[in-house]
Design a protein that fits this description.
The complex is a heterodimer of chains A (405) and B (278). Chain A has helices at 26-35, 70-78, 110-120, 125-139, 154-167, 184-199, 211-217, 235-254, and strands at 7-19, 43-55, 59-64, 85-90, 94-97, 172-176, 203-207, 220-225, 228-234, 269-276, 280-282, 287-294, 302-309, 314-319, 328-331, 334-341, 349-358, 365-376. Chain A has 405 residues and is an alpha/beta fold. Chain B has 278 residues and is mostly helical. The chains are: A alpha/beta (405), B mainly alpha (278). Chain A binds chain B through residues 1-3, 6, 8, 18-19, 27-28, 30-31, 34-35, 37, 56, 75, 78-82, 88-94, 96, 98-99, 102-105, 107-108, 115-116, 119-125, 171, and chain B through 1-4, 7-16, 22-23, 25-26, 29-30, 32-33, 37, 41, 44, 112-119, 183, 186-187, 266, 269-270, 272-273, 275-276.
């Protein structure tokens, strides 16, 4: 009987090196090295020290940038390649759906390809015959099943591939970004199958660029970066960290040169900006900002405070003169300001707060200082902020007619 | 262990406990599928289908008949038909030549699978060599029957020895095919070297001529050719009906086995890296 606590899939310190041969004669040398049981002289380290555990009924999402080693990792798990280092232990049948229509022979009819796929999975001819009708029904591509695959549309190839991989009910299903294909109705069928599979105790290893899918279908996630595990844990945490990393990365590309020391140049300049309770704040909590602005001529400057997402998308900005506030004078040439945001309903992620110093007329913008902070929390809401909302489930009448509550 | 049923988990590519029986069954099913695929793809799209496998050797035989009897007028040799003398040796050679040429490039046909699915890559080579040998052996029998029908003195009881000789040939060829096929994945020159080498070997082997026509000085060199040995034994069996075993047969079996094991060793060393180079 199945043992729910034992790991169905377990990787320990898995690494994979690919031989690099770019010089003439390098291949001859490589063959010679391999025959002698030596490692290749020059290698590219596609994976290094990757480890995780997947128990029956769990689901893990693999995320990461292109070239981070996701496909290599899936191939190692599927047994397509042997790891150079480390151990892979699999306690069940792995159904791999690596790329669309993989394992299909283009010259062969859909039916012949079903037989090939089943033989690859180790099914006997009797088992294959029993499963064939089920696969044909799920794929639902009509008479095309008797045509060579090369005449199929890409959508039909996907349908057949998904039908084959899923009908043979694997213990672990590995999929490589294939959920978002096929037409609307087939996608629904796939998601329904997937939820049913997971609900029935199926185990899923999903490689996806869609954080939505990873959060929806996976309990835990693993972020690969440069072949190494950058982060491994609850899906919500890992996907948020990954998104924040991307936001920062795209912002870094846009970031202009740091403003020259404005104070030294004799212009209005922010000299200090402090955040409390700190650089990390829970969603819906209170954020307090305090700082000081330098004024070269002693007149009270206007302070503009703005919040942007880590990639630079503006969220909200407000200036002292908009609210009729004047910074408090603390020295001959220094003014202090303090701002409280009592209910910070930003969605979890990385943000920046920027304080700008403007001239007393609030026209010319001289300088800004920014501080990063993280909003923590677990939610599957989307966007930047939580807007106040209410589902009017008891009263389906149009809004205009609904009585105030 | 932790499987829900032994059959299911047995196919796990890196299961902690090897389950040989189920794995062997899976590999048999896979080989059968590949073998069928090899047979049908060769004649896929040709109007006559598999019948071509039998028509081709007969057509070839007709050409040789014309060349030897009408042009060279080599009607007989040592009291035997020269056509039969050549035919007995030529088909095993064609099998070897075609088998090696196809097997050398066979893995490329399976590149899509090798990159995406876990399975023993050897099966691709076995299927390629197996299909070639099966077709060529069928052609061989067809030719022998055709020659007998035209009154040539074929000693069919010689098949008792000829069949084991073909099996020895198959074993040796499989070993060489594994070696060349694995090498070809990394070094593309292999296929271009194999072809001319086979061409030269054909003329260095007493296939189209008897060993006795070779000058005394170089005769030991030609006689040392293992394929030449096979040809002589086939002629003993099918032309003269000599079925007695010789010590050389055991040596040949040993050499074939060594070739197979050596080829397989090389193949298994290199096959984990195919995925990256195909």
């Amino acid at each position: 009987m199945s043992d729910a606590t034992a790991a169905l899939l377990r990787l320990d310190g898995v690494g994979k090196d690919y031989a690099k041969v770019d010089v003439r004669g390098g291949r001859v040398r490589l063959v010679w090295d391999l025959l002698r049981g030596r490692a290749a002289a020059r290698v590219f380290r596609a994976l290094d020290g990757v480890g995780f555990e997947l128990r029956r009924g769990e689901s893990l999402g693999i995320i990461g940038e292109n070239g981070a080693g996701k496909s290599t990792l899936l191939k190692v798990v599927a047994g397509v390649i042997e790891p150079t280092r480390g151990r892979v232990a699999v306690g069940g049948r792995v159904g791999a759906l690596l790329e669309l229509g993989s394992g299909f022979h283009p010259e062969y009819t859909g039916l012949a390809n079903i037989d090939l796929a089943a033989a690859l999975l180790g099914l006997s001819p009797a088992d294959i015959a029993a499963k064939r009708d089920e696969i044909i029904a799920f794929a639902d591509i009509g008479d095309h099943i008797n045509d060579p695959i090369k005449h199929y549309s890409s959508g039909m190839v996907v349908r057949l591939g998904f039908a084959v991989a899923t009908t043979l009910t694997p213990d672990v299903l590995i999929t490589d970004e294939v959920l978002a294909v096929g037409d609307e109705s087939f996608q629904k069928k796939c998601v329904a199958w997937m939820e049913n599979y997971l609900g029935g105790g199926g185990t899923l290893l999903l490689c996806s660029h869609s954080m939505y899918h990873v959060q929806k279908l996976c309990r835990s996630a693993l972020w690969l970066k440069g072949g190494r595990v950058e982060r491994y844990g609850a899906a919500a945490d890992v996907t948020q960290a990954y998104l924040a990393y991307h936001e920062e990365k795209s912002a870094a590309a846009k970031q202009p040169m740091a403003a020259a020391s404005a104070a030294a140049a004799g212009v209005y300049a922010v000299q200090r900006l402090d955040l409390s309770p700190g650089a990390s704040i829970a969603q819906g909590g209170e954020l307090r900002l305090a700082g000081e602005v330098f004024s070269p001529d002693g007149r009270a400057p206007v302070v503009l405070v703005g919040i942007v997402r880590a990639d630079g998308t503006p969220v909200y900005g407000v200036a002292t003169d908009m609210d009729g506030v004047t910074p408090r004078r603390v020295a001959a040439d220094r003014y202090a300001f303090a701002l409280t945001l009592p209910h910070l309903e930003l969605l979890p992620g990385k943000y920046l707060v920027r304080a700008h110093a403007l001239d007393p007329a609030g026209v010319r913008l001289f300088d800004h200082v920014e501080r990063a902070f993280v909003v923590t929390g677990e939610t599957r809401e989307m966007g930047l902020v939580r807007l106040a909302h209410r589902w009017n489930d008891e009263d389906p009448a149009p809004c205009g007619d609904s009585p105030p509550r | 262990m932790m499987e829900s049923s032994p059959r299911i988990s047995a196919t796990a590519p890196m299961a902690a406990v090897p389950r040989f029986a189920a794995e062997a069954r899976r590999n048999r099913a896979l080989f059968a599928n590949f073998f069928k695929r090899e047979l049908t793809t060769r004649y896929l799209g040709s109007a006559t289908g598999l019948a071509w496998a039998l028509l081709h050797p007969l057509a070839l035989l007709a050409v040789y008949y014309f060349v030897f009897t009408t042009i060279f007028r080599a009607g007989s040799y040592g009291g035997k038909s020269f056509l039969l003398f050549v035919a007995v040796a030529l088909w095993p050679w064609l099998a070897a030549q075609e088998g090696l040429q196809r097997a050398t490039v066979s893995l490329a046909n399976y590149a899509g699978l090798i990159r995406k699915v876990a399975f023993p890559h050897e099966l691709a080579v076995y299927a390629s060599v197996g299909a070639t040998l099966a077709l060529q052996f069928a052609g061989y029998l067809t030719v022998l029957v055709a020659l007998a029908a035209f009154g040539e003195p074929v000693r069919f009881e010689g098949l008792l020895l000829a069949v084991p000789l073909w099996l020895i040939l198959a074993l040796a060829l499989t070993g060489l095919a594994l070696f060349l096929g694995a090498l070809q994945v990394f070094i593309r020159d292999v296929e271009h070297i194999v072809m001319p080498v086979l061409m030269i070997l054909m003329y260095l082997t007493p296939i189209l001529y008897p060993l006795t026509l070779v000058p005394e000085r170089v005769r030991p060199w030609v006689a040392a050719n293992p394929f030449g040995w096979l040809v002589e034994r086939l002629r003993d069996a099918l032309l003269d009906g000599k079925l007695a075993l010789q010590w050389g047969d055991a040596v040949a079996l040993g050499v074939a086995l060594a070739l197979f094991l050596g080829g397989r060793w090389v193949f298994r060393r290199l096959s984990p890296h195919f995925e990256d180079f195909l």
